[in-house]
Amino acid sequence: MQAGDPPPFTVVNPLGRAKVLLICDHASRAVPRVLENLGLSDTDLAKHVGWDIGAAALTLELSRRWDAPAVLSGFSRLVVDCNRTLGEPTSMPAVSDGIAVPGNARLTDEQAAARAAACYWPYHEAVSAALDRFAAAGVAPAVVSMHSFTPRMNGMDRPWHVGVLWDKDPRLAVPLIANLARLHGLTVGDNEPYSARDPHGFTLRHHAQPRGLPHVLLEMRQDEVGTDAGVLRYADFLETAFAPILVDPALYRPALYM
Ligand SMILES: [Zn+2]
Fold first, then answer.
1. Is the pLDDT of residue 258 over 80?
2. How close is the Cα of 104 to the center of ligand 1, in Å?
3. Ligand 1 center to residue 171 CA distance, Å?
4. Residue 168 Cα, ligand 1 centroid: separation in angstroms?
5. Helix, strand, coil % (nearest 5) of the chain?
6. Which whole-number Å values give the CA distances from 236 to 3, 139, 146, 169, 231, in the listed order?
7. What is the 27 CA–ligand 1 centroid distance (Å)?
8. Rounded distance from Cα 78 to ligand 1 centre (Å)
9. Among candidate residues 192, 195, 203, 162, the one with its CA nearest the CA of residue 80
């Protein structure tokens, strides 16, 4: 890391009183200066391949409304994808949605390890530390992972406004899918456009599942949340859809869904 590089993570509102931890794996499109934009233009890095457009802004808005702590990643998913297991091909992809990433084309093990040490583990250690703070206070929080997806992929328009991704723990996902559709008329993807039942997601599997914390991953469509107005609109949707779920004290009991 050099002067001018951002930190590998940002913790917002660490002492927030909500029993919720917000996390945002793909919050930033920043690349450490030494990696020279990975050989990409700023235009390409600003596309969905570089980061989750709108996800950080929505995370910050919910953090403020809920008075909840949030942990956001500091670097582009193309540097190292914080929601992948290290060593997977998509962890430091040489091609992402048809865009070649020259800086990832011939990575040595040493270079990959240096990225993991500088950009990946510090973020995950910050998530662990945030969960440890809850644990020390005797609280089992809900963990909400915020993402966004591109409206068109592989020639197909994606119809969902929101995707709710979950594997075995239904506590947040099932009522949330119902509430988002019923209260706001949204087209909600149940494990669409991605599924949490494929082996790819790392963060919730690593942090929330083993602690038995209620957890869910949300995917927001980028043409809906890519503007300030869209962020506020979806913050309203999520706030009202989550409200009856988060108010139930039974939610905050650790339970292992293995
Ligand atoms: Zn994402």
1. no
2. 19
3. 21
4. 20
5. 40, 15, 45
6. 38, 26, 15, 24, 9
7. 8
8. 11
9. 203
Q: Amino acid letter at 207?
A: H
Which protein residues have their CB within 5 A of the ion that is ligand 1?
26, 52, 147
Those residues with Cβ within 8 angstroms of residue 113's Cβ, 6 or more apart along the chain or in another chain:
none
Cα-to-centroid distance, 31 and ligand 1 (Å): 16
SS3 call for 167: coil
Higher pLDDT, 153 or 86: 86
Give dist(CA 58, CA 238) in Å, integer.
10
Exposure string of 199-234, with b = 16+ CB inside 10 Å and e = fewer, is eebbbbbebbbebebbbbbbbbbbbbbbeeebbeeb
* Residue in the structure block whose two tokens are 């809920």: 66
Distance CA 23, CA 10 (A): 10
CA of residue 15 to ligand 1 center, whole Å: 25
pLDDT tens sequence across 134-161: 999 999 999 999 999 999 988 899 999 9
How far away, in angstroms, is 95 Cα from ligand 1 center?
Answer: 16
**pTM (two decimals):** 0.97
CA of 137 to the centre of ligand 1 (A): 30
Contacts of 108 (CB under 8 A, 6+ apart): none
